Prior knowledge:
alpha+beta, six-stranded antiparallel sheet, 805 residues, seven-stranded mixed sheet, single chain, elongated
Amino acid sequence: MVTSLKWIKAYVPDLDVEPQEYMDAMTLSGSKVEGYKRMDEDLERIVIGQVLSIEKHPDADKLVVCQVNVGEETVQIVTGAPNVSEGAKVIVVLDGGRVAGTHADGKTVPGGVKIKAGKLRGVPSYGMMCSIEELGSSTDMYPDADPDGLYILPEDAPVGESAVAYLGLDDVVVEYEITSNRVDCFSVLGIAREAAATFGKAFIPPVVTETGNDEDVNDYIKVTVEDPELCPRYTARVVKNIKLAPSPAWMQRRLAAHGIRPINNIVDITNYVMEEYGQPMHAYDMDTIAGHEIRVRRAARGEKFVTLDGQERTLDDSVLMICDGEKPVGLAGIMGGENSMITDHVHTMLFEAACFDGTNIRLSSKKVGLRTDASSKFEKGLDPNNAMAAMNRACQLVEELGAGEVVGGAVDVYSRPMEGHRIPFDPDWINRLLGTDIDEETMLGYFKKIDLDFDPETREVAAPSWRQDLIRDADIAEEVARFYGYDNIPTTLPHASTTGKLSYKLRIEEVAREVAQFCGFSQAMTYSFESPKVYDKLRIPADSSLRRAVVISNPLGEDFSIMRTVSLNGMLTSLATNYNRRNKDVRLYELGNIYLPKQIPVTELPEERMQFTLGFYGEGDFFTMKGVVEEFLTAVGMEKKPSYEPEADLPFMHPGRKANVIYDGQLIGYLGEIHPTVAADYGIKERVYIAVIDMPEIVARATFDRKYEGIARFPAVSRDLSMVVPKQILAGEIEAVFEQRGGKMLESYELFDIYEGEQIKEGFKSLAYKLTFRLKDRTLEENDITSVMKKIMNGLDQMGIELRQ
């Protein structure tokens, strides 16, 4: 959002501040100013002159010597401008003055270019006559300027006066960062109102007078709104006997300061009102409106429409259209149609000022790939009550500029008038919230400055409809704070009866981070948007459910066109980046969502599942990753040992070094080594190990309840058990026998040796465990241990396991 400071001062006449002071004060009062630019910062000693005589240069065919009256004196200037003539009013830079300049590459010269007296081909020259470009502007903003020569001013230009002031370049353009909830501040009047309140000055908006002849607009146009939810208000007025002409200089200068190119009086009026009131307007040629009827309806699915820019747009039934009795004539809130554009032959014109649903305009703008100044305002949610005020202002300007004859009356379709909020006023609560001691009268004074009424009977503050951000007591407390001055609010401790804490889910995630970092992993963050090529890279089958992804409707590119259904690509990409930069022994972890659509095509939000993904290459192996997973499960109170299912359907994992992680019969994740082909596709030439834990399954089973157990009073007894085991039997199956048959005496067990070699018969392997036994109430005897070991051995015998001799 930008405004001209001179335009602001037109409605706050007593505002006499320097740009820096204005910037600082407005920012502190809540209208953040990003910066400002003086339009005349590189312009010095530039006046209006009149060419008195022209003589041919004695030593140059393309140069002439001019005598120019600059007010107090006549100066000699040599020029090669092709359009210079006797009597012409021109812009003159005097000796020692400064103009805007550009380098050969088109970039602006910092500080401008200084003009000094000198000789051109032997003839003295004491200044320079200028084109509009040399003043830092262009013929787009000054359409009456000659694009190939000097800027010839009108005959009434006052000789000797400042040309900068005459051309309206003695202005300051201020840029703001306005939050989207302050839709009222996306207008000159809104900013002027804030400036008046900030500096304690009177705000004097333009006085809008009644317009219109004795005719009735309803005899010219009929309006029907078929979808009042998407178009809460539609106003229209008719102007006949249109006289297209350039708009006056003051209007052109104000528009140019806002970066808007002047075109003609009608177009400039609609742009002027849009900037002044923040209400976009549109004009239609009545001769192109079939049946003199306007219908506001949704487009048909697949309907095509050609907009003013000549592009054909394909629409769906969520896009709102402005139609006449036969055809569409505009995309509501976005752009008019080529079939109803204003031409130089227009005779009667329809003015439209409406209010549309902001969310629908934003979505429609994206769908049709067209964003305009109007749509950028509509999408923020405008005040419907502003539409008629803007309409009347536009018609007033039409009459003042002699641009046409306004037909009496107005069409106003307004199904549910919008009202402002009434908010309970409690000054004591506000003071407690802010930590201040501001009296009630001072607070009410702040409210009065920004047009907030107070009802003493109900003790309520009435916010106008254009202040859509004021809906609760905290909002009016903010109004008090910003005008009292944030820098004046003392530092106080908050008063609260409760203390905040992390939610249960976030506490589990915090434990995941702590465990990962304790085990040497660094946190990574990767994109949720991916390319469909990832599936092939990970060797995921064509019929896999993992390929059913949410497709982004307006992606940055193919590489970010879907939402990920598996978290591996981001982790492997990060590991590959580290590998290619020759970083050794890299360990990374990430907590991030995957997005699983409930159906394709997507009709509702996908399921978002947080995944705890760990990955490393370098020092470590499968069992290292398995240990990290078990450390995490223990840390969140899942004390049972998980089991592992090696026959996991994981095509991106090494077929002999992978496993699903099972807890209480439920799949909670997987781990293992990445398939060598997949690792090679990512450019990693080392073994890569990955673990992915599904956090919703963890949250459902974790607990922070801890039961204290004292130090054991009685000694432990240990036994080593060395076995010859068939290769197909997993360690987990053996440990299940320990758990089942060890009873309460078995305190722990630990695998300390695995061996395969010549001393072990073919098809078998050697496993050695240390078993620890203990009772809490007495010392174990040999008979106790012998009995338990016998039960364990009986269970192992049934599996074909033998004691190693």
